[in-house]
Prior knowledge:
alpha/beta, Rossmann fold, five-stranded mixed β-sheet, about 35% helix, about 20% strand, binds S-adenosylmethionine
Amino acid sequence: MINPAPLVAANIPYKLVRLASGTFSVHSTAESETFHPVIGPVAEAEALYVRQLGIRERVQIHDGAFVIWDVGLGAAANVLTVLNALQDLEVSLKIISFDRTIEPLKFALNHAAELGYFAGHETLVRQFVEGESVLMQCGKIRLEWSLELGDFPAALETPRIQRLPKPSAILFDAYSPAKNPAMWTQPLFARIFSLLDPKIPCAMPTYSRSTMLRVSLLLAGFYVGVGHATGEKEETTIAANSLSLINEPLDRTWLIRARKSTSAEPLWEPNYRQAPLSDETWVKLQAHSQFQ
Ligand SMILES: C[S@@+](CC[C@H](N)C(=O)[O-])C[C@H]1O[C@@H](n2cnc3c(N)ncnc32)[C@H](O)[C@@H]1O
């Protein structure tokens, strides 16, 4: 078969890097950030999202389409790893990906052979890149995958976001808070929480275990727990609107540690800084039902 023509990517501010694990990943030169550093895209997505969310089990007992919000589509490693984990199941999946750019995905598709995780999904991803949505069978999955292209914090304030299907899982994968503070503010997490349907249990794992993030999520209304190790990090974070989705909720021992931390106050604005808890935040934190 003739190889399809490479997709035209603008200016290519991305490169491939070989990780300590030997696998390849995408690196953004503009942000100096490597996607899924250390253990690599597939291993991280399996540990952080597929296994931690118990996604195979949840999808099978779910009525109707199981909705996933993929925040930070990037090079689609998270989405494709989820699809690989589910494609032997006759289920209906709606994935809504958010990103301000599709360039890393175009770049990655042009390097599909080195990255490996596109295997078997090249046509799907090519159609997605060209049309920003696909409706097709993926293995046994009835898949609807669409892109919300634009600034995510701004998108959260639009009427359109209210009309999107409510998620049962959120794959939250922005760049690090120091480089990408607008994606880690407390008001952003509060807005996400307010958009969830209280009748639809939803869990949101993310790779950070920082106290600042956990305080932000708790104040936003989420229950918050210790997340699975990923190989790179011995601990991550999982937030949910239902305590039943959290195996190891943060407890009062964590609360005492947070009180002493020099980096616990949420980012109220999209400027990175570190600060201990304010008195006002400390009072609100202790009142969270998770600690009662
Ligand atoms: C670490 S990468 C995501 C990697 C991806 N999940 C994967 O599996 O390949 C972070 C992504 O967040 C996106 N991002 C950062 N800030 C954003 C913003 N304000 N709005 C929307 N997307 C943003 C970046 O464009 C980038 O693609």
